[in-house]
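Chapter review. Work through the record for 5-formyltetrahydrofolate cyclo-ligase before attempting the end-of-chapter questions.
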Amino acid sequence: MKNDHKSDFRKSSIKRLEFTSLFLKYYKNKIIVKKLEDFIKRSDSKNILLYIPLGIEVDVKPLIKNLRKTKSKNVYVPFMQGESFKIVKYRLPLHKKRFGIKEPNNSFFKARKIDLAIVPIVGIDKLGKRIGFGKGMYDRFFDKLDYKPTIVFTQLVLCKSEKILSDNYDIQANYIITN
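Structure tokens for 5-formyltetrahydrofolate cyclo-ligase:
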């Protein structure tokens, strides 16, 4: 029953995000990226996990570009592997993979521990736990870590359920940044 509610919430949140006008998306992206930049400066994080955005997610590409210019910051992104992902250093060129997700080439370089993870969401439930696209990749990734980085959820328009939709393995953020 809970999974039906979660699936319905996911679908309605995706619809809501898809229908955010282009002008509003542009404006909201600018605000959220600025908030993320300020947060990163205050947190003094060195190793940062970001993501390569899909259309309904906060466009963090300008943030990635700015962070890469900073020698004291390392930018990592997910590289899908099976049911989860590993982190690889962000570098060009990007290739389109499963689910339309772009990612850099695989890397055999062992990534450092990440200090900060900026994670896109489809929505959150009453407990503030992440509702994503339903594949569980982020949940599996964070479950495998033997440490806990600071997690920040991002979303263009906050989609929050008044019900508990999450399972106990769903991740929770330290912070949520939206417009």
